Structure formats: structure tokens, C-alpha cells
Amino acid sequence: MTLITVQGLRKSYGACEVLHGIDLTVAEGEIVGILGPNGAGKTTTVECIGGLRMPDAGMIRVAGIDPTTKDSELRQILGMQLQQCHLPPKITPGEALDLFAAFYPDPRSATELLELLGLTSQADQRFEKLSGGQQQRLSIALALVGRPQVAILDELTTGLDPAARRDIWTYLQGLAGEGMTIVLVTHSMEEASYLCDRVYIVDDGRIVATGTPDELATSPGSQTVTFVPSAPIDPADLLRLPGITSAAVDHERVTVLGNAAAPQTVLAALIARGITANQLRVTGPTLDDAYLRLTQEN
Amino acid sequence: MKATAALFRNEFRLLLRNPAVVIWTILIPTAAIVVMCLIPGARQPLPNFGGLSVIEAYQPTLIVFAATMLALQMMPMFIGQYRELGFLRRLQTTPTHPRDLLAAILALVLVISLVVGLVLLTFPLLFGVGVAGRLALQSLLLILVAASFLAVGSMLAAVIPNPRVASGVGAAVAAIMWFFAGMWFPRALFPGWLATISDWTPGGAAASVLGGAAAGQTIGAQPLLALGLWTLVGFVIATRSFRWV
Q1: Are the C-beta atoms of A263 and A280 separated by less than 8 Å?
Q2: Is residue A6 in a domain?
Q3: pTM value?
Q4: Is B2's CB within 8 Å of A146's CB?
Q5: What is the CATH number of the domain that holds A120?
Q6: What does pLDDT average to in each consecutive run of 10 residues of chain A (298 residues)?
Q7: Residue A4: which H helix or E strand, with range?
Q8: Residues A168 and A251 in one domain
Q9: Which residues in chain B are closer than 8 Å to A87, comparing Cβ atoms?
């Protein structure tokens, strides 16, 4: 079931249009990532979905609710983590969670959230004394305390250490498994690959690609085969093979790029010529490559 | 209701963690009245104070001092900081509107101003200074006085986005209120034109009604009207021009 629908979303700040028509959908229980360079319009998009900004044009529905008119209904089902947000300096994580818990009818237990986000020993420390990563984990906890049906998380784990990131990812996957829908703004391809069922790549206020992280990564031209041949080989011969997009030699090492079948094609050609491929390496495509290609094309 | 109560409790706790608030708005005015009560000379009625003692003559000034420190100098700073930190925006993402936080802050400042004001009015009664029978009227006037300063403070918090500037302007406005309330120069010695201006400021009107009530005089309509107008105008401007982000 589609839980979030965005159609033709446009938004300008002054004379500058930052969103030129965004379309996206998120299904119930899905974790969807929004990727893109700085200034691409990711935060503006999620802030429009979250009802914090008024779109200039377009249609948004979150569980059937129009965020532009039914703000109070939206607040009951939506938890948001904002990119730039600080709590009062002298509040403690325990107090902040108790305070936010009082806003919702059936909140999660503060103790449980503190433990899951590794803040138990900081529960009584003042916000101003927490590290950046601890403040951020508290911010995630506050977004989840009301048992939201939809969570919008902007820059989820930026600045967290790898172990803490894995813990939070595992926790969020568990919540998605229970039916919570998550929209994630991120810069981290690792985070998107690990966590997201689907990603949208936004560039300059437009969606430039969408799909599962694997689908995007395995788009054509991204398999890399490198080896040192036992006898010299002409790259031009390799380039004539089907599905090969480039071939080059550098200090005896041959690098061939091609489609998903490229490794097999290259090896077959080498065997046919009686050449052995030493130090063979086949590199699968990554979301990083796809992201860079997609965002640099524009 | 649960949310508003939680916000109120939270703001109260945070306020108590702020030494400046506790010292300037609670400890110093209370200490001043306690010290004055311990000085026998300050308890004697004086003919040149219209039969009032030094304590009674200074009570309105102290009340104005405590209320303005909190409502004019500190409250606009707290609200501005919440805006600057993004805390108001953060609350906007929850079922609680940030206006509930402002309501909690205003209620808290009002309650503290009233409690401190009542301490300043009742403590001297233990030393036989003041008339217990006038306390009811004085308490009613105290609410109006505190509300008018709260309204002016809210207006500053609304129209000045920068918390440090708001606090600075608030401090300057508070000092002017103290002047009109007669903290540095007795109001009785103001020339006619200055007295007229003074009577239309919240500080002057506050001192006028509180002083009058202490002396058992009939309270004129003019200072009540002045306080009422400041309250109304302050809150209207504040609600119309308040910026959430």
C-alpha cells in the first residue's frame, strides 16, 4: 500500500526555484532513501512532506493526509528528525524523552530508547555536555518516541561511529519490519545500500534516478575486470568483444569495463588465445559509481 | 493538557538551572525585603513618605524590579534562544504546537512574578509593616502589573529575533521602567510633565497603583487603563508579529 505520494512538487525560495517537480512514492513499511549532492533539494522535499514548508505547487499525501491543510492529523502519525536542531542546553536526554513522550498518546519507553541508542549512561547529562554523535542519537530517539507510522530522518547517521551506525540501522530495519515507513535523507552510499529498499537520486531539484540500490548500481558499463596477461594483448581486440565499453593497458595491467557478462566474455577470449589472466580482479559496480555518474551527467 | 503540563514542568526545571534567573528575580528582591524588615528604622512610618515606611515606599519598586528582570530582560532571551536553536521548529514536528511552549513560558514567568510579588507584600506583615486587609487588592493589582510586563516582554521577543539584542533591549526597557517606578529618583519629586509620561508607562503606572493600594488610597482609573492598554497592545503585537523560525 502506498503511504506517501508526492506529485509535481515545486518550491521556490524567492526567485530561485529549488524543486522543479518532484514525484515520488513510498510504500508502507518501506525504507526509502533520498540521495543527492548538497543543495539538490533533499531537505526541502522532506520538509514539504513533513508539513514544515508550504509547497508552491504539487500534491502531497501522507497516509491520505494533506500536510498543507491537516497539520494536526499529520503530527499524530509522523516523527521527524531535523538536520539542524538543538535542544535547550540544560535539558538532559532522560528529561527530553519524557517531555516528548508527553506529547503522544502511546509513547515508547524512554529507558528502552536510551538503551537502544546507547545513551543510558548519558541519561542525566545536560544536552550541552553531550558529544555531537550523542546529540544526534537523542534526536533520532525523539523522532521515534511517539511510535510514528512514518519517520522522516534527515542526515540520520552523519558523524556517528561505524558501530553506532550499524546498531541504529539494525534497529530501524526492525521497526520497518513492524510496519513503520521510513524516509531517509542521506549522503552516505553505504547507509543507502545497507538500509534502503529503494532510493531516489535528486539533483538540482529533480529526481534523476530511482530503483533499489542494486538496480541503480548494476546499470550498464559498471563491471570492471583488471588483470596482468601472461602475454601481451591488444586492447583493441578486447574492445571488439560484445558488451565491452572500454579497454586500456597501464604498466602491463589491463583494465576492461563492460556489462554484467563482461568478466565471462573477457576470460573466454583470453583462454581462446592461450593467455592466462594473473592477479585477476573483478569489481562489482557500486552505488557510489552510479550516484556519481547520475549526478555528474546533469 | 498532559503536554502543556509537561512543558510547564520542564521550563520550571530549566529556569531553576539558570543561576541568573534565580539570583536576580528571586534571591535579590527577597533578600532586599528581608534585610529592610530587619532594620527597625525602615519599619517606621515617615511623614515625608505620606505616612508610609521605607519598606512600603520601596515595595512597588522592588516588585517592578523583580517582574521586569524576568519578563523584559530574561524571557525575550529564552524565547529567542529557543527560536535560534531550532527548538520551536522541532516542536512544530510534534503534536504539540510551539505556541504551547510559549504559553508554558508565559505562565511560568507570571507565576514566579506573582509568587515573588506576594512574598514582597506579605513578608513585611510579619514585622507589622503594611495592612493585611489591603492584600487582596494588592494581589489583584499585582496580576495586572505582572501581565503588563509580560506583554511588553512578549512584544520584544516577537519583534527582535536575535536573543542577545532582545535581552539588551529588554534590559534597557527594564531600566527605564525602574526609573519611572522611582527606583533612582522618588516619583513624588518628578516635575509635572515627567509625572504625566511616567503614569502612562507600565513601570510608572505599576508603582502608582501598588503605592496607592499600600497607602489605602483609591486607585485612579488612569494607571489601571495604562496597564490594561500595555497588556492588550503588547500581546496583540506579539501574537501578530511572532516568528516561529
Answers
A1: no
A2: yes
A3: 0.85
A4: no
A5: 3.40.50.300
A6: 94 92 94 92 94 93 92 92 86 96 94 91 94 90 95 84 87 93 91 93 91 80 85 88 88 88 90 91 82 76
A7: strand A2-13
A8: no
A9: 85, 87, 90
